[in-house]
């Protein structure tokens, strides 16, 4: 999809500062507030921006453990993948799930209260397709570069 310079500035600004006022956003991109709001609403309707989320400081809120689980399915059928993806997606602690190429089939990011809770989640994942799932768990020791937005300048050129 082609975006004009102003829409690129709007998207880039909202990615960094989702709580910016429409007035401030309009000033930064050189539009009237009503024109800016119309563009933002159109970008939302097109599914290019939203939903708006807050980045939480999880260590300040609670104790938790983050685990990267790499999953291999012995049954490579479309139905097995669909079933696993759908049921894994219903587990609240599975915060991200990607189907990938390479040495394993899926990449899950799991955030649990503690290792005991992660172990219960791991068992639940194994039970989704009994005898047909292999999981390798990798405990995150430090989040060295947290996600802070996409490199839009490099991606949209």
Structure described in brief:
The protein has 157 residues and is of the alpha+beta class. It has helices spanning 5-16, 22-29, 33-45, 58-61, 78-89, 115-128, 152-155; strands at residues 65-73, 94-99, 106-112, 133-139. It is 43% helix and 18% strand.
Task: Describe the fold and architecture.
This is Lrp/AsnC family transcriptional regulator. One of its GO terms (cellular component) is cytosol. Keywords: DNA-binding, Transcription, Transcription regulation. Pfam families: AsnC_trans_reg (PF01037), HTH_24 (PF13412). Residues 3-64 form the HTH asnC-type domain. It is built from seven helices and four strands, in the order H-H-H-H-E-H-E-E-H-E-H. The protein has helices at 5-16, 22-29, 33-45, 58-61, 78-89, 115-128, 152-155, and strands at 65-73, 94-99, 106-112, 133-139. Helix 2 (22-29) crosses helix 3. With 157 residues, it is an alpha+beta fold. The chain has a four-stranded antiparallel sheet with strand order 2-3-1-4, covered by helices on one side. The chain is 43% helix and 18% strand. It has two domains: 5-45, Orthogonal Bundle (Arc Repressor Mutant, subunit A), CATH 1.10.10; 58-139, Alpha-Beta Plaits (2-Layer Sandwich), CATH 3.30.70. 12% of the residues are buried.
């Amino acid at each position: 999809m082609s975006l004009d310079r102003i829409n690129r500035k709007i998207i880039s600004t909202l990615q960094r500062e989702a709580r910016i006022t429409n007035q401030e956003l309009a000033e930064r991109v050189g539009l009237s507030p009503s024109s800016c709001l119309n563009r933002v609403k159109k970008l939302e309707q097109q599914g290019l921006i939203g939903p708006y989320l807050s980045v939480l400081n999880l260590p300040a809120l609670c104790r938790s453990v983050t685990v990267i689980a790499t999953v291999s399915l012995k049954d490579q059928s479309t139905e097995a993948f669909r079933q696993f993806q759908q049921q894994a997606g219903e587990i609240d602690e599975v915060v991200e799930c990607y189907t990938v190429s390479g040495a394993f089939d899926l990449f899950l990011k799991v955030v649990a209260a503690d290792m005991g809770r992660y172990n219960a989640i791991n068992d639940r994942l194994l039970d989704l397709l009994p005898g047909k799932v292999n999981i390798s768990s990798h405990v995150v020791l430090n989040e060295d570069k947290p996600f802070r937005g996409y490199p839009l300048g490099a991606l949209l050129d």
